[in-house]
Automatic annotation (TrEMBL), chain A:
Lineage: Eukaryota, Viridiplantae, Streptophyta, Embryophyta, Tracheophyta
Pfam families associated with the record: Trm112p
SUPFAM superfamilies: Trm112p-like
The family this protein is said to belong to: Belongs to the TRM112 family.
InterPro entries reported in the protein's UniProt record: Trm112 (IPR039127), Trm112-like (IPR005651)
Oligomeric form and interacting partners: Interacts with TRM9.
GO BP terms, alphabetized: maturation of LSU-rRNA; maturation of SSU-rRNA; positive regulation of rRNA processing
MF annotations from Gene Ontology: protein heterodimerization activity; tRNA methyltransferase activator activity
Species of provenance: Helianthus annuus (Common sunflower)
Protein name stated in the entry: Putative trm112p-like protein
Automatic annotation (TrEMBL), chain B:
Gene3D superfamilies xref list: Vaccinia Virus protein VP39
Gene Ontology molecular-function annotations: nucleic acid binding; rRNA (adenine-N6-)-methyltransferase activity
UniProt GO cellular component terms: cytoplasm; nucleus
SUPFAM superfamilies for the chain: S-adenosyl-L-methionine-dependent methyltransferases
Residue runs in coiled coils: 84-111
Superkingdom of the organism of origin: Eukaryota
Keywords for this protein: Coiled coil, Methyltransferase, Transferase
InterPro entries named in the record: DNA_methylase_N6_adenine_CS, rRNA_MeTrfase/Polyamine_Synth, SAM-dependent_MTases_sf
Example GO biological process: rRNA methylation
Record-given protein name: Methyltransferase small domain, S-adenosyl-L-methionine-dependent methyltransferase
Length: 123, 211
């Protein structure tokens, strides 16, 4: 699971109001290089929740992103875009869990696939 | 990539080994899947460089068609872990990146407006009534650009009305009518193949507020 996917998912349990971001418990992290597409990244920059990405990236062992939301002009920097690219698309959670920030419920991640299935009483 | 090449790559994918009837697990054939995604890309520019979600991805045929047409980030969602494992093997075989999530379509909670395009071959709702409409209503909430979906031609009027009136679509068009060969996967099908007419739809959601 890429951190871009993590950035778009919230806890889906009944009654939870603040289900984002899911806390990551990493057990196995892998990196898979992909092509660098600056236009895509510039477009994503305005849609991403920055803090969630920067925190997730740090937990995943990549601490190169600034904590504070950067100014929009940062997307003109190639150096910045390469770091953003790496954090967003190349770092994968292969094994571990996503944890609901409100209830502590763990959603396991196996072979890179988060299991977000709910129990009957959570729907 | 040429249409022929796309179709032949999709034709080599592994499909459901033990299809589960209650989940309406039958694959989208390579012929239909390749035309569906090829049209989305070449006539509407909805795939390449985009974030694409595949609802009820099964073994990943539509998702993988999107990655082969250079979608930047593709997420396949299905309730069934066995299908997801096959989808993952299929992605490895093609050496492409595919994100997978195990979930009920209606229970996934999405943040923001990151998904551009949803592609899907939803259950037709023959086993669980309304399954097709449930998929469509969620797809129109999640996509910011377009939704491509297959539905039985007999439901055309109903789909159009629901999409425009209840699910916030700004347009709902049938792009083409196809013959869908449901292979004899299930014992209750008496004939060898059941050939049914299906519509390939393109829906455009109304513009949304940032959430
Ligand atoms: C008609 S098959 C399409 C499979 C695949 N998209 C393809 O093109 O080959 C429908 C798929 O939806 C999945 N499905 C059925 N109900 C679902 C639900 N409520 N939530 C998520 N997936 C579901 C099934 O497991 C099955 O893989």
């Amino acid at each position: 699971m890429r951190l871009l996917t993590h950035n778009m998912l919230a806890s889906n349990i009944k009654g939870v109001t603040n289900g984002f971001p899911l806390r990551i418990e990493p057990e196995k992290i892998i990196e898979k290089p992909v092509d660098f597409n600056p236009d895509f990244l510039k477009n994503m920059f305005s849609k991403i929740d920055w803090k969630a990405l920067a925190d997730a990236s740090k937990i995943m062992g990549y601490a190169e992103l600034p904590d504070e939301v950067p100014e929009q002009t940062v997307v003109e920097s190639d150096e910045f875009l390469r770091k953003f690219h790496h954090a967003l698309l190349e770092v994968h959670l292969e094994e571990g869990a996503l944890v609901c920030p409100e209830t502590g419920r763990r959603f396991p991640v196996n072979k890179g696939i988060p299991n977000m299935l709910l129990h009957e009483d959570e729907v | 990539m040429k249409l022929k090449q796309l179709e032949s790559l999709l034709g080599n994918l592994q499909q459901f080994q033990n299809p589960k009837i209650e989940l309406e697990q039958y694959p989208t054939g390579a012929h239909i899947a390749s035309r569906m995604l090829y049209t989305a890309e070449n006539s509407y520019d909805d795939i390449s460089g985009k974030v694409v979600a595949d609802f009820g991805c099964g073994c990943g045929t539509l998702s993988l068609a999107a990655t082969l047409l250079d979608a930047e980030h593709v997420i396949g969602i299905d309730v069934d872990d066995e299908s997801l494992e096959i989808a993952s093997v299929n992605a490895d075989e093609l050496e492409v990146e595919l994100e997978l999530i195990q979930s009920e379509i209606k229970n996934l909670q999405w943040r923001g407006q990151i998904v551009d395009t949803v592609v899907m071959n939803p259950p037709f709702g023959t086993r669980k009534k309304g399954a097709d409409m449930e998929f469509l209503s969620v797809a129109l909430k999640v996509a910011s650009q377009a939704v491509y979906s297959l539905h039985k031609t007999t439901t055309r009027e109903h789909i159009k009305r629901a999409a425009l009136r209840d699910y916030n679509a700004s347009s709902a068009e049938v792009i083409c009518e196809l013959r869908y060969d449901l292979p004899k996967l299930y014992k209750f099908h008496k004939k060898k193949d059941v050939d049914i007419a299906v519509d390939l739809w393109r829906f455009v959601p109304k513009a949304k507020q940032e959430s």
